[in-house]
């Protein structure tokens, strides 16, 4: 390879590196520092290494963390189950219509996230176009409602984060040489065996990527819970948001944010270890 | 996928069975697409609703009135304009610095490469609320007033990784021989970049730019933390759900949707011409066809320097 | 290259776990730098309660009219065609930039807090804030400009007695009311056949899952206390605990479907909830006749949205001109006719009645309904049942939020 300037790569990396450091790394550090402070708006906040911010907020809101992770898990599993068959069909059977179908799948996401969620609220309303007739014809009990339940929130999460699951799985499946599948059939494998021992392992890196990119944002989301959920469906994101904006309780809010980030990062690392980092590196290749 | 070859095996041809299963999955995919599009259809429908009051949830008749009055609400229009300009500027900045980052990461070895990769990964996988909260913490501590500029810098921040990663994926598959050829023919580094490298990675850059634009226009969580009193389109929508979302929002949502669809279709049409066969997944393109006229033109021009 | 191109997708979804990362020493260095940066903390800002004449003069002596102003307000508080603003622009020649950026008091305060603390402009010269915790904070933190009484002639002449010298701003040192409202109960008669008259009915298991309550801790707390027969303005922390227990019980039994901020109107119109805490003006403006509003017999909350000037405003003189101009009954009437909340200018009632007499058809019906509505011009008996929020010091506020805040979060 011809010699290039020694500083070229550093110069090219510099703007991005600086930007990310200044606006991603440093804010995180500041947030950690803020989480250990005490005080209020009027008297000011001072650094006191007040660990109680963590213990007290976990005490009060610990169950919200659990609920958020649970909703995130449910939504991720739902996405996985919903996406895999479609991704499989498009990758293997799509033929020349592959792009079209993929495009159709991604079509709804051209509409802003908030608008999509609010439209879902309209769809799910008690006496709207869907539930109304169902109730009128006695297909659902009188007191039945979908909105303001955990089900509505998880559905909203699954709906909004579906493409993050579909795309990686599709990419991984699409790269599988179809001749491998044929070879498996030729060797008298049953459909289940082909799926379990050929397709699934080969698509695992894609599944991993999809799970990570769905679970993390879904657990941390608060818009779905606020629009579609009731008081018993609040997630940790709602708490963080209201502590920042409603109460100006910056230390507590920062502590909660940091714990959320730590939990999710830990989850990713453990998951990566379980699947083997090599598999992750092959996720795109 | 190649059609099944005829074979002399004892096993009955599996195709008919697979055929039925294929129909099942096909139907499933169509149903899934229908489910995904349901709220969009409802949204578009209610943009035509002839509603009198502030509540837009019961069908009261068809009208095109809202399309005529779409820009009647000044602050809604201002919010949409804000969203568009922020998206434009942030895409510009992000594409430039993200492309360079992607090039560097895909091509060179240097100290800090691992750290940069890790940083990019963290930016992509960090939950938005944590990024927004930490930005707010920093702005509050440094008493930086939140507004248009803070939104802009935040948008650039979370988009860089996506552009860099997309470009990097493209760069990694390039044949360095082309650039070497240009260099051997006497082209300087900037010329090389402009006439050889850039056209080859352009699809990646374009994809990254498109992604950055969509991410910016769509963003709600980070924007709500860093916006101060400035209002963007998603923020306006969210606020208006309190008092009743006006049909103009449905109209604007429909328009954004249609425009996005058109742009993607146009781009798809143009890239189909460059594609070789769908069999290899459409991967063959400019980068892997050294005899492409554009690339050789670039090399020829570079040797005139 | 399309969005479906595999290369693009691959790059997009590639989470690369790098082996060699930032060295430990570099990490510690970075951390140290960041902590040093952040260890400074955030400056506190003291506050002042009393306003002296010298303060007022000192503030206004350097200010002059500029001919423009920027106004931040809640949605639904100005006609769609900005009729009142246009009238003001025509009468005074001052150009007004009107923005409906205030959705909730809490987040609004969160947005303006940082620039005001740093002595920077928030981009607005006039803003409308509800009496309550955040307005109290603004006063204590010195964020508001003291008002120049000499420029408030119309206010002195035409404001109703109940709107002068309110408990949260003695002497109207920093604020004058914009519109007032009542928090009561709204119910959808399509689904509720009984007569609704009391807060106890919001706690009735018969309507389980169909009740809406407000998410704001001050609104919620007041209703909890009304239920117990306690006057919120004189309540003690022990009262708060008792009220919170009742509210928690209501929530845990599943009686409450959701805690709303302003979107209860949507929900009760659609029938997602049948009874809900509601604001008088919102219900009045609903075109659907199904939804009715009632001031509960245990009591309701009277709140006031107040006009105030942020200290760093660039055009305070023009802001004061607008504030005072709105107190002319002739200017206030068109606004009240649209907004449908309680106006601080009682003389408006006569003007609206006169307009009604002159009008015909739908307009006449609407205006008559307006001029005789107890929601917009409440009677003495109604007013007697209404209470304000309790005024809270900083320490009390922390306690209050600690008691009522978690309820809406499910804790």
How would you describe what is shown here?
- Chain A is mainly α and 285 residues long.
- Chain A contains 12 helices and 2 strands, in the order H-E-E-H-H-H-H-H-H-H-H-H-H-H.
- Chain A has a domain at 66-233: MetI-like fold, CATH 1.10.3720.
- In chain A, 73% of the residues lie in helices and 3% in strands.
- Residues 278-285 of chain A have low confidence and may be disordered.
- Chain B has 305 residues and is mainly α.
- With 411 residues, chain C is α/β, with parallel strands linked by helices.
- Chain C folds into 2 domains: 53-180 and 304-370, Periplasmic binding protein-like II (D-Maltodextrin-Binding Protein, domain 2), CATH 3.40.190; 182-302 and 386-409, Periplasmic binding protein-like II (D-Maltodextrin-Binding Protein, domain 2, 3-Layer(aba) Sandwich), CATH 3.40.190.10.
- Chain C contains 17 helices and 10 strands.
- In chain C, helix 8 (217-227) crosses helix 17 and helix 13 packs across helix 14.
- The model of chain C is unreliable at 1-23 (pLDDT under 50).
- Chains in contact: A-B, A-C, B-C.
- Chains A and C meet through helix 1, strand 1, strand 2, helix 2 and helix 3 of A and helix 1, helix 2, helix 5, strand 6 and helix 17 of C.
Summary?
The complex is a heterotrimer of chains A (285), B (305) and C (411). With 305 residues, chain B is mostly helical. Chain B has helices spanning 15-45, 65-68, 74-107, 113-125, 128-141, 148-172, 176-184, 189-218, 221-226, 233-243, 247-274, 293-303.
